[in-house]
Write a structure and sequence with these properties.
The complex is a heterodimer of chains A (about 700) and B (about 55). Chain A is mainly alpha-helical and about 700 residues long. Helix content of chain A is about 65%, strand content about 5%. In chain A, strand 2 and strand 3 form a beta hairpin. Chain A is globular and about 90 Å long. Chain B has about 55 residues and is mainly α. Chain B is built from 3 helices and no strands. Helices cover about 65% and strands about 0% of the residues of chain B. Classes of the chains: A mainly alpha (about 700), B mainly alpha (about 55). Chains A and B meet through helix 2, helix 7, helix 8, helix 9 and helix 18 of A and helix 1, helix 2 and helix 3 of B.
């Protein structure tokens, strides 16, 4: 048969490679900066955009969607062409994809710094950016499927299955979790409230880890690891089981982020069971990767690329062992809200995602520039810096998490809590310092890599269009007897639909029951919608990213009950669009902070936290005292809430600002009695109103309604 | 209305976790069966695809 000549498009791979390196450094810098703020709060510069609450989402979004995202696209665009023996379907679509994604990243960074956020972790971006993501994702999909359909290789290699499952699931997750009602150009409210919002958010959050940080990278592993080791994957059979079992089970596990919360018990248990089951396919995949190197360990000693891959896959194994353990309720009771989780995700982020990206870059750049790596030694140094960095990062945080959780739970013999919250924080500050040193080492390693790559590029000559040839795909003439899975493997669209069904089953069974209960059921009669001033205050709370350090979810434990008050009930959150349960307690829980302190305490505390709690690591928020409440937005916000089912009376939007001012004035008078002068329309007034409302409603409930479980 | 058990008391809620397990179990068996019965040479050929390009 006549061989067809064609060219692989390396230019698009090059662009994504540059973007990976650039955003990697940026994202790590943001992370390091945020880490330093935890023990040196002055490094927030008293400047709104660079406070922890805004910097942390910038860090997470930059690492996940910019660094790892570009790495995924780099790897997919390189490997897909070769696995399909075809050039990318359309150079124009590739270009649109690239520039669209970078535009989204820049828009994301700007809006997050400016405080435009939905307040839902890892999905903080506001609705116009959400729409842009959807469009660019569709472009990527068309380009990918176009290539697959024009392939010259009958069988779809397992890496491509992972790419397809990634594409379809991320689309599903993104769309479902981003249901939000726009209030203005850069402000929206989550369609869901309270428990439902939490369930959807963590179904999304968990599966963003699964289908953005795991499955595409596994696809890359199945391509680049055999490539770099120059030997086929250990067991192709295992990879098939790995694929189906992983995508099936992963989707169920979301509720393990909500153990001991107000989420219904059965959903929590389901999440736990599936999380524990998840260990099997994850380890199947890890072993498949590691066993690929059987008999080739001498190569690992020589080759920095393989070194990175080995540690990456090992970290994947560690993180996926730890994940199921963390979702056991008794372990989660300790780990949740503590730094343990942060350590866990960084084993995945720094080890698995970071090291895979570095390995791929070190392998790809010399290939595409037709040369050798500038310095193997430098790459090996990078490897060791990175590895030591990971250890120095993670070990102190495990220690910190475990120690702090134990301190939270310690009682004196008299039955009193032994430690103030702040004591538990100041106790672990040395760990925060060590962690940032680990992070800094890791960053230095990455900078070495950039230098090494630049030198390599200077040395080589870029092969923009790599010549290749392959026979065209003959028309398939199967003689009837063919195994069904073989047929699926040949049909990308069928594979896509099947993947979608597999992940949708988990999603649907997990969520439908919770949605059977309407969010506006008057579950606790005394729980009332927020007043307009509180609503504005809540939006300030969201804008400043308070949820990155403060939870609003008291778990039913003796210590939390003693420290924060009665445990949180699902019915308390029915008007919370979005929910603000949080996932980390760098500061104390705020679910019942309302009425705990006088208004003046909050005023002084926001002005300078150290004044009210010496040793506090919370940054000051001076701008809240100068900024005016955006009263022009009140009517629109009230109308949006009404549309979402919050029972404000008809026409309330017209008088909302009047009530807002009345309440603000009463707070102003309160403050004045404490000898504090403030204009009643300052943002701090709204924030105080919100904080003073938190957790109060339930106290007004008749006794028979607040029966214990 | 007592509010604390309102989510747990959805009628027939226990069918959901059960259904989950049955679906996954069946699905897994089917995949396992396929993998066991798959042709050795095809598997080997498939696993070599990345090395050809």
């Amino acid at each position: 048969m006549q061989l067809e000549k064609f060219h692989y498009d390396n230019r698009i791979v090059k662009w994504f490679a540059y973007a990976t390196a650039l955003w990697g450094i940026v994202g790590m810098l943001a992370g390091l900066w945020a880490a330093i703020q935890l023990y040196y709060p002055a490094s927030s510069l008293d400047f709104a955009p660079t406070t922890f609450g805004r910097l942390r989402p910038v860090h997470t979004n930059a690492i996940i969607f910019a660094f790892v995202g570009n790495c995924i696209f780099m790897g997919v665009y390189y490997s897909l062409q070769r696995l399909c023996k075809a050039r990318m379907y359309s150079d124009l679509l590739s270009k649109i994809h690239f520039w669209g994604w970078q535009g989204i990243i820049v828009a994301a960074a700007l809006t997050l710094f400016l405080g435009y956020t939905t307040g839902k972790e890892y999905a903080e971006l506001e609705w116009p950016i959400d729409i842009a993501i959807t469009l660019v994702w569709v472009v990527f999909g068309i380009n990918m499927f176009g290539t697959i359909l024009r392939r010259r290789e009958r069988h779809l290699y397992v890496a491509i299955w992972f790419y397809i499952a990634t594409w379809v699931t991320v689309a599903l997750l993104h769309i479902v979790n981003s249901f939000e009602l726009p209030v203005s150009f850069l402000k929206s409210y989550s369609w869901y409230a309270g428990v439902q919002d939490a369930l959807v958010q963590w179904w999304y959050g968990h599966n963003a880890v699964a289908f953005f940080l795991t499955t595409p990278i596994l696809g890359l592993m199945y391509y680049f690891l055999p490539k770099a080791a120059n030997r086929p994957v250990y067991s192709y059979r295992l990879s098939i089981i790995h694929f189906w079992a992983l995508i099936f089970i992963y989707i169920w596990a979301g509720p393990h982020h909500l153990l001991y919360t107000a989420l219904p018990d059965w959903a929590q248990s389901l999440g736990v069971v599936f999380s524990v089951m998840l260990i099997a396919p994850s380890w199947g995949g890890m072993l498949n990767g590691l066993f690929t190197l059987r008999g080739a360990w001498d190569k690992v000693r020589e080759d920095p690329v393989l070194k990175f891959f080995v540690v990456a896959v090992t970290c994947y194994g560690m993180a996926t062992f730890e994940g199921p353990m963390l979702s056991l309720k008794n372990v989660n009771a300790i780990s949740h809200f503590s730094d343990w989780t942060i350590a866990h995700v960084h084993i995945g982020g720094l080890g698995w995602n970071g090291f895979m990206a570095f390995g791929i870059l070190y392998w790809l750049v010399p290939k595409m520039w037709g040369t050798q790596l500038y310095s193997k030694k430098l790459a090996t140094n990078h490897f060791w810096l990175g590895t030591i960095g990971i250890v120095l990062y993670a070990v102190p945080l495990y220690w910190a998490g475990f120690t702090q959780a134990q301190m939270w739970k310690t009682f004196t013999e008299e039955g009193q809590l032994k430690f103030q919250f702040l004591e538990t924080v100041t106790h672990i500050i040395p760990m925060y310092v060590t962690r940032s040193i680990g992070g800094a080492l890791y960053l230095v390693g990455a900078i070495l890599m950039v230098y090494n790559i630049v030198k390599t590029i200077r040395k080589g000559y870029f092969i923009a269009n790599e010549a290749a040839e392959a026979a065209p795909l003959p028309k398939h003439t199967s003689g009837g007897r063919e195994y069904w899975h073989r047929r699926i493997e040949r049909k990308p669209v069928t594979l896509l639909v099947l993947s979608l069904i597999v992940v949708a089953i988990g999603g649907a069974l997990e969520m439908i029951p919770t949605f059977l209960v309407k969010s506006n059921v008057p579950t606790i009669a005394s729980v009332k919608p927020y007043t307009p001033l509180e609503l504005q205050g809540r939006d300030i709370y969201i804008r400043e990213g308070c949820y990155t350090c403060h939870s609003q979810m008291i778990r039913p434990f003796r210590d939390e009950d003693a420290r924060y008050g009665e445990y949180s009930k699902a019915g308390e959150f029915v008007y919370d669009h979005p929910f603000q349960w949080g996932s980390k307690r760098t500061g104390p829980d705020l679910a019942r902070v309302g009425g705990k302190y006088p208004d003046s305490w909050h005023y002084n505390h926001m002005l300078d936290p150290k004044l009210m709690s010496p040793g506090s690591i919370m940054p000051p928020y001076p701008w809240l005292f100068d900024n005016k409440i955006d009263t022009a937005s009140t009517p629109a916000k009230i109308r949006a809430m009404q549309q979402l089912g919050v029972p404000y009376p008809e026409g309330y939007d017209k008088i909302a600002n009047q009530e807002l001012m009345a309440q603000a004035n009463s707070i102003r008078i309160n403050l004045k009695m404490a000898k504090i002068e403030t204009p009643k329309d300052a943002e701090i007034v709204a924030l105080i109103a919100y904080l003073q409302r938190l957790g109060k409603d339930i106290k007004a409930a008749p006794a028979n309604q607040v029966a214990e479980k | 209305m007592k509010f604390i058990h309102y989510l747990e008391s959805i009628t027939g809620i226990s069918i959901y976790p059960l259904l989950s397990f049955v679906i996954f179990g069946l699905f897994f068996l089917v995949v396992l069966l396929y993998v066991i019965r798959a042709d050795k040479n095809t598997m080997r050929a498939n696993s070599r695809i990345p090395l050809e390009g």
